[in-house]
Description:
CATH topology: NADH Oxidase
Number of strands: 4
Bound molecules: flavin mononucleotide
Strand content: 15-25%
Oligomer: single chain
Helix content: 25-40%
CATH class: Alpha Beta
Largest sheet: 4 strands, antiparallel
Amino acid sequence: xxxxxxxxxxxxxxxxxxxxxxxxxxxxxxxxxxxxxxxxxxxxxxxxxxxxxxxxxxxxxxxxxxxxxxxxxxxxxxxxxxxxxxxxxxxxxxxxxxxxxxxxxxxxxxxxxxxxxxxxxxxxxxxxxxxxxxxxxxxxxxxxxxxxxxxxxxxxxxxxxxxxxxxxxxxxxxxxxxxxxxxxxxxx
Length: 188
Ligand SMILES: Cc1cc2nc3c(=O)[nH]c(=O)nc-3n(C[C@H](O)[C@H](O)[C@H](O)COP(=O)(O)O)c2cc1C
């Protein structure tokens, strides 16, 4: 199998859910954000917006609110997490990036997902732990959503679609989980 640094990085990235308290370095954060901005976007609209949140109190509030909303979500796994007192939607990561997309733009939610994946891979390449977090997005669909939008300075007309928890890893990650087989079909 062909190997290079990028392929190795893709395969070694894992979701990290336990972080050191130490804040990540500013230069590393800038490199991670830039990687997000270099994602492809439909018709090159780049209709995304990145919010870096390093205010633990606000992250705690978003986490708690997402749990309150998640309690009545029609999914056992989500309800179990929402009812777990020890569960923190961002795993107490020191930095969270919220990726919002312009509501009126064509396919902006998918653009945001592409930017999110770039962010995860950039973090991994710098030895920084990351986890894609969509649970916390419940907070923006609840009654408090508009208040959080204002507190975070999300531009008007944009919706938070994805978020990433970032921080130095408390423990080194294991190899990737086995991949599903028989999911490729060739037509020649
Ligand atoms: C769209 C999306 C949403 C996700 N949301 C969450 C989340 O809210 N909380 C969480 O802990 N992990 C979340 N994850 C991470 C997945 O659980 C994880 O990627 C998956 O279990 C595979 O593990 P790996 O990332 O280590 O390969 C999300 C991943 C994706 C792609």
